[in-house]
Amino acid sequence: MQDTLPRRALPVRAGGPLPILAILGVLLVLVAIRQPDFLAPASLMSFLGRSAPIILLAAGQYFVIVSGEFDLSVGSLVTAEVVIAARLIDGDPDRTWPVMALVLVSAAFVGLVNGLITSWLRVPSFITTLGMLLILVGAVYLWSDGSPKGELSEQFRRFGRRAVEDVPVLGRVPYALLIVLLLAVLATVLMRSDFGRILVAVGDNPRAAELSGVRVGRTRTIAFVLSGCAAGVAAILLGGYSGVSFQAGSGLEFSAITAVVLGGVALGGGRGSVAGAMLGALTLELLFALMNFFGVSGTVRPAVQGAIILLAVAVSAARSPSR
Amino acid sequence: MTTPGDVGSLLDLRAVTKSFLGVRVLDRVDLDVAPGEVHAVVGENGAGKSTLMKIISGGYAPDEGTVVFAGEARRFRGPRDAGRAGIGIIHQELALLPDRTVAENIHLGHEPVRRGLVDRREMRARTSALFASMGAGPVPADALVGDLGVAQRQLVEIAKALALDARLLIMDEPTAALADHEAELLHALVRRLRSQGIGLLYVSHRLAEVFALSDRITVLKDGRRVTTVPTAQTTTNQLVRHMVGRDLSGYYPGRADPGDLGPVRLTVQGGGNAKLRGIDLRLRAGEVVGVGGLQGSGRSALARALFGVTPFTSGVVELENRPIRVASPRAAMRAGIAYVSEDRKGEGITARQSVLDNALLAGRALGGAWTGRAARVTRMRGLLDAVDVRSAGTDQEIRFLSGGNQQKVVLARWLALGPRVILFDEPTRGIDVGAKAAVYDVVRRLARDGAAVLMISSDLPELLGMSDRIIVMREGRIAGQVPAGASEADVVALAMGAVAAT
C-alpha cells in the first residue's frame, strides 16, 4: 500500500520550523556581509536580549492563534502593566516582588476575561480582544491622568536590562535571554503534552474535537491566559529595558502576529510549532536590524509587517488544497 | 409519449456521466422533460439524484454526455448561467438571504434600475405581480425573508426562479420540510405551473405525492437510470422493487445468536426533542441494531441525541438500568457511549494532525494529563495495527490517508475507550470495499465483546447484512422494526410510509 500514498518531494513537514530556519539563515548571511561586527558575541547577545519581549509575545500569541483565535490585546496589556507597575512601585524597592506578582496575575486575569468572553459569549476573539485593547488603553490614560506616574525600582528593572557578566566566549548574557530560553523549553514541553496536542486539534477542527470530548471553550480560554501571562513577563522585561511610557507596548500585538505567521503557523489554527513562532519573532527582529543597516527607516515597520502577513497567508492559501 | 430526442422535449440529457474522486456517481444517465410535464425522479439515498439535478442546473459540469436545453446543447458555467438560460432550482436547503426583503431576494442580481439606482417601487410591483401569477397566497414584498416560515420561503424561491422566466423548474424534495397542508398548497402550485407550460423535475421520497403529481417517473439506482415509466402504468410496489432490486453480497460477518445477547445496556423511553418524538428504544449487549429510514427521518438526530450533541429534551435514558443525563458529548463519553459521525471530514478527523494524534484525541480529552502516557501511545499503536490502518507511519497527517483508512483511525480512537454503547452513523460512507469489510469486522467484534451497537446506514444491503434487527425511522419517529432476514422492500416500505399509503 505504501506506493499508493501521496509522497512529497521534500521531507518538509508543513508547519515545521525548517522554512523559518532557512529564512533566518539567509538573513544572517546578509547581515554577515553587510555588518560583520553585528555577529560578534557582545552585540549578538545584546540583540537577543532586546528581542526577548517580542519572542515571548510571539509564543503567547502562538497558543491563541494555533487554537483558532486572535489576541489583539497584548500590546496594550504590556503598556498597561508597565504603567501600573511604575505607579504602584513608585521607586520603592520593597514593593518590587508584590508588584511583579500582581503584574503576572493581572495579565493572566486579562487573558482569562478574553477567553471567557470569546468562549462563552461567543464573541469573535478579534472583536473581544480589540475591545480589550481599547479598554486597557483608555483605563490606563484615565488612571494616570494622561501621563505615567511614579517609577520602577532598580530591582524590577534588572530583569530587562541586566546580564550575567563575564561568561566565557559570550561575554554578557542578558537575563532576558535566559528567561526566554527557559520559557521556550517550557512552551515546547507544553505543546508536546496532551494539552498541547488538544490545543492544536481544537484549532484544526473544533467540531471534531468537541465530539471527541474536548472542552473546546476551556481549552481556548487557557490559551488566552497563557498569552496574557506572556504579555505580563514581556511587560516586566520591556519596562526594565526601555522604561515607562504609554508607548511601551504599542503595536506589539501586530509584531507578534506577524512573527507567528512568519514562523509557519496557520492563521485560523491547527498548524505550526511554538518554536517556529519564536524563531519567527527572532527573524522579524533580525530583518528590521538588517533594514537598519541598509539605511531603511524604521518607520516602514508596519508596512513590512503587513506585507509579510499578506504574503504568508497568500502562500499558505495557494499551497493548501481547496476546500 | 415523449421519448429522448423528441422535438418537443424541453430538456434532453444523454449519457450523462459524472465521477467524484474516481467514484462514478452517475453512469450514462438519460433523462428528458417535456414542456408542461411533471417528471418525478426517485431513488434511494446516494442513487445520484442530487448530483443529476446539480448537473442540469449548472452546479456541476458532466464528465461525459450532453445536456440539451430548449433544442440547444448547453454547457453551463454555473447556476447563474443556467438560471439565465431558464432553468431554476429549488434546493432542499433554501438558498435565500435572510436579512434581505422578499423583493430584494427575488431580484437579486437583476434589480430593476432607474437613473442608476435600484427602483424599489418597480421591484415591489413586479414581486406582487409574480405572486399573483403563481396564485399563491400573498407574501409581503417588504418582509424580511428571515421572518418567513419554510413554506413561504419556498414560494419566494419559486418566484425568484420565475422572475428569470424559468421554463424548467427543478424541485429537490420540496415537501421534505413542509406540513401536510403546506404540501397541499405546493402541489396546487406545481399543477398551476405545469398548466402554464413549465417543465418540472420533481425529486421526492414521498411516493404518494409522486403518484399524485407526476406524469412520468424515472428511477435511479447506484448512479444509473433503471427505468422511466408513465406514472399511470406503474405501482408503488413496482417502483420500490426497481429502487432496491439488488443481490446481497456475502461479506458480512456472522450475526449474533439469540443466546449471545447480554443484559440491556441502554434504554430510552419517550425520548424527544426538536427533531424526534416518542422514541422508545432498548439496546442489549452483543447486538447490532440497524437504523433505516430516509435522510432527514431522524436517524442521525437519534444518534446525536444519545450522544448529547443535540440532547433529548424529554423522556428518560437509562444506561445499565441507571438513569443518566447526557447533556454533552463529554458526558456521553464518560457514561461509556461513543459516536462515529457520518461527516468524517467535518466532525470526525482533525485533518492536519497526525494519525496518532487523531487516534489519541478522545483519550487525551478524557484522560489525566500525565498518567500512563507512554503506555497509552504504545497501546494505540497496537490498536491502529489491529484495525489495519495503512499509512506511511503514525506521524503522517491523516488528510493524506484514504477515506477508509481515516475511518479506521476514528474507530481506533473509540475502541481505545472501551465503549459499552457505540453509535455508528453511516460508518462506511465514501470508503472502498476493502475498508468496508474491515469496518464490518470491527462493528461485529465490538458487539461480540459486549457492547451494544447502533448502526445507521442508507446502504440497504449493508443494513440488512449487518443488523440483528432493524428499526426504521420516519418523520422523527420510530416507524417500526423488522427482524434480521427481512427484505429491502420491507425496510423501504416502512421508511416511505408506503404501507399506509397503499
Automatic annotation (TrEMBL), chain A:
TM region(s), chain numbering: 12-33, 39-58, 95-116, 123-143, 173-191, 222-242, 274-294
Keyword Membrane annotated: yes
Record key words, sorted: Cell inner membrane, Cell membrane, Membrane, Transmembrane, Transmembrane helix, Transport
Cellular component terms per the entry's GO annotation: plasma membrane
UniProt cross-references to CDD domains, sorted A to Z: TM_PBP1_transp_AraH_like
Gene Ontology molecular function: transmembrane transporter activity
Subcellular location: Cell membrane
InterPro entries, per database record: ABC_transp_permease (IPR001851)
PANTHER family cross-referenced by the UniProt entry: ABC TRANSPORTER PERMEASE PROTEIN YPHD-RELATED-RELATED, AUTOINDUCER 2 IMPORT SYSTEM PERMEASE PROTEIN LSRD
This protein's name: Autoinducer 2 import system permease protein LsrD
Species whose genome carries this gene: Actinoplanes italicus
Higher taxonomy: Bacteria, Bacillati, Actinomycetota, Actinomycetes, Micromonosporales
Automatic annotation (TrEMBL), chain B:
Gene Ontology cellular-component terms listed: plasma membrane
All residue ranges annotated as the ABC transporter domain in the record: 11-247, 261-500
Membrane topology label: Peripheral membrane protein
Subcellular location: Cell membrane
InterPro entries referenced in this protein's UniProt entry, alphabetically: AAA+_ATPase (IPR003593), ABC_carbohydrate_import_ATPase (IPR050107), ABC_transporter-like_ATP-bd (IPR003439), ABC_transporter-like_CS (IPR017871), P-loop_NTPase (IPR027417)
GO molecular function, a single term: ATP hydrolysis activity
Main location group: membrane
Residues of the signal peptide: none
Transmembrane residue ranges: none
Keywords for the protein's UniProt record, in alphabetical order: ATP-binding, Cell membrane, Membrane, Nucleotide-binding, Repeat, Translocase, Transport
Keyword NAD: no
Coiled-coil ranges (or none): none
Name by which UniProt lists this protein: Ribose transport system ATP-binding protein
Species: Actinoplanes italicus
